[in-house]
Design goal:
438 residues; alpha/beta; Aminopeptidase; eight-stranded mixed beta sheet; six-stranded mixed beta sheet; 41% helix; globular
Length: 438
């Protein structure tokens, strides 16, 4: 009987040992899984690709430079740096010369439950003088005056059937769409702005580049991301000096290092905020201001067209003529942080006296109206000119030997801007909005 009891005790001890052993194994396995899940997941998106070359230029000394090749090279360098850090999990939208649709890019990021989405692009304009870096975060441009970059990046939407299907119902001019965008993106905007500021700060301090600032823009590749997202324009391929830099090994390594350091700084700031969340009251998210803000660069009796050296390489200029003076405004936003960034960009470009001016949205003029100045020329337009052939009720005045051709009357600035954009889409460029007071 005593031997039987000893046998049963031994069997129970053995079972307890195996139970503890299996429990320890399961615990360790769960710990590994949990640690793996704690990795900071980042989606790196090399802009364009495949048949979509993006912006491009050909130089005798450099050959053919395509945005898709430069963005891929820089993206892979950033990814290689991040992959050396065990805290990061890196996902690429492409690692070769292929074209993932915009839908595929955003779906990949959302399915991966990514913590961050970084899209890398190259800038290009008609002028060869524009230069510098800029970072975009998602957000509607209230008055649709700054659509150049949005158009450049959104045009590729029509290259893929899935994109046609997914974006067909999206109307960027619809107030409902703008409201939906605000609600969807507001919780990610502050984090996106933080990362953008780290990126641009590194470009300035580490690489000695000109930063054109962090801007809010409505870009499809960012619009559907359920995470903080930025689109980084690393330089202008249309500028010969920057083309050399962004296509060189040194330049690409400098750019990749600055982006990598910005991402690691962002993660440290995020982790610090998480650890201090219980200690400090939560900082309220930035709220839109009641006014739209534009940066007044200068007032002049002279009219300057897009790309003129007087504008110091800045794009997104709205020109308003008042009392014979042309006033040049840069950028439009209703977010204080972006307003301040735009002001800094203007001052860094050389407009030391630049100032932020508030505009009340949809404010009607009680003692006047807005009209569109289409042409100011010493020569009278021919009756078969494109403008006179395609527009009715164009008004002509002559003052000081100059023929002025104006079109339409509008009670508020937004209506004038909308009409101006419509005419620009028809090929009529360098339009000025003229404020006529009674």
């Amino acid at each position: 009987m005593s031997k039987l009891i000893q046998f049963l005790n031994l069997k129970m001890i053995t079972k307890r040992f195996y139970f503890k052993k299996h429990f320890l194994f399961i615990f360790l396995l769960l710990s590994l899984v949990m640690n793996a899940q704690k990795k900071f997941t980042i989606v790196l998106d090399a802009g364009h690709g495949g048949s979509d070359h993006g912006t491009n230029r050909t130089y005798s000394s450099l050959g053919y430079l395509a945005e898709k090749d430069i963005t891929l090279a820089v993206t892979l360098l950033v990814g290689k740096m991040l992959e050396k850090d065990k805290d990061f999990k890196v996902i690429y939208t492409r690692k070769t010369d292929v074209y993932p649709s915009l839908t595929d890019r955003t779906n990949l990021a959302n399915r991966s439950k990514a913590d961050l989405f970084v899209s890398i692009h190259v800038n290009g304009v008609k002028s060869s003088t524009a230069y510098g870096t800029e970072t975009f975060v998602q957000g509607p441009d209230q008055n649709k005056t700054n659509l150049e970059v949005a158009k450049a990046e959104n045009d590729v939407i029509y290259l893929d059937e899935k994109d046609k299907e997914n974006f067909a119902s999206y109307d960027p001019n619809s107030p409902e769409s703008l409201i939906a965008l605000k609600i969807q993106q507001s919780k990610y905007l502050e984090s996106s702005l933080l990362l953008g500021s780290f990126v641009e700060e590194n470009f300035v301090k580490k690489d000695k580049r000109l930063s054109r600032g962090v801007k809010q823009q409505n870009l499809h590749v960012l619009r559907l991301n359920a995470m903080p997202s930025v689109l980084i324009e690393i330089g202008f391929v249309s500028n010969p000096d920057e083309a050399i830099y962004i296509s060189s090994s040194k330049g690409q390594n400098d750019i990749a290092n600055s982006i990598y350091n910005a991402i690691t700084s962002y993660k440290k700031a995020r982790d610090r905020n998480y650890s201090e969340k219980d200690k400090e009251p939560e900082k309220p998210a930035e709220k839109p201001l009641s006014n739209d803000f534009r940066i007044l660069l200068m007032s002049s009796p002279n009219k300057y067209n897009d790309g003129d050296t007087a504008l110091k390489g800045l794009n997104y200029i709205l020109t308003i003529k008042e009392n014979g003076q042309y006033k040049y405004y840069y950028g439009t936003t209703n977010m204080a942080s972006i307003r301040d960034n735009n002001l800094k960009t203007a001052k860094d470009a050389g407009f030391r006296n630049a100032v932020a001016i508030g505009f009340t949205p949809n404010q009607k003029l009680s003692n006047g109206y807005y009209t569109l100045e289409l042409v100011a020329s010493k020569d009278k337009l021919s009756s078969n000119s494109y403008i006179l052939q395609n527009l009715k009720n164009v008004k002509r005045d002559k003052n000081g030997g100059i023929f002025y051709y104006t079109y339409g009357t509008f009670k508020d600035l937004e209506s004038a801007v909308k009409a101006m954009k419509s005419l620009e889409d028809k090929g009529i460029k360098n339009i000025v909005i003229q404020k006529m007071l009674k």
